[in-house]
Amino acid sequence: MRSLPLPLALTARLTPVAVLACAGWALTSGPAAPPAAAHRPASQEKPAGSSSAAPSSTAAAKVYASAPAPCSSVPAGTVKSLVPGAKTAGKEIPSTDTALRRTCSWNALQGYDYRWLDVSFEISDSAPEAKREYEQRVGEKSGGGAVPGLGDSAYSVVDLTTEDRQQTREGVVMVRAANALVIVTFNGSDFETKKAPSTDEINKGAIKAAKAAVGALGSGQPS
User: Fold this and answer.
1) Which end of the chain is more exposed for a tag (fewer CB within 10 A), N or C?
2) Quick one: pLDDT band at residue 130, thresholds 50, 70, 90?
3) How far apart are CA 202 and CA 189, in angstroms?
4) Dist. CA 51–CA 37, nearest whole Å
5) Domains contained in the chain, CATH given
6) Contact 87, 191 (CB under 8 A)
7) Phi and psi for 94 in degrees, rounded to 5?
8) Which residue from 65, 60, 55 is spatially nearest to 124, judged by alpha carbons?
9) Model pTM score
10) Are 69 and 219 in contact (CB under 8 A)?
11) Rg from Cα positions in the chain
């Protein structure tokens, strides 16, 4: 078997990337001033030291407290089918805060076929914050479409790139579930034919991994 070098774009992907921790978000509100005590019935007066603050809507919206273990979020059988020849245990990417973001990668070159799979979890302080982040990222990825029945909202897009006549097709699926974001990246190349896998293969593979990853979010729920 002849040995072929990986294209520069794919080689660059093998370099660990810096992972940013999600920024915190706090919601504050100023309650209207109560009427003067002299005009309030004695039965409605609150004892000294009692609090009139309402329960935090941010806390109520935080369904998931932390990111699940990413390398066990996709079943071994799914990993084998999407990334033939890869170690099913995967490799977790170092994170500055594993409670907020965790990522696992699988990649392998079997014969002349190369496949790469990333699964990332990002935990926000609230569902509204996660929704804003999701909408911003979807806005940056044109040409895709919604994935019905996955999380609260999901979006899938597939792109084809060519470098030195070598094609690479990459699919990205972004899912928001309550205050969590799940981002799956799946790509592939054939170094013998220089062709990329079909759009259907890449898109379906990315969605399959995303469904498994969303199902793993339950392990990050508050006890």
Assistant:
1) C
2) very high
3) 11
4) 16
5) 65-220 (2.60.120)
6) no
7) -55, 140
8) 65
9) 0.73
10) yes
11) 23
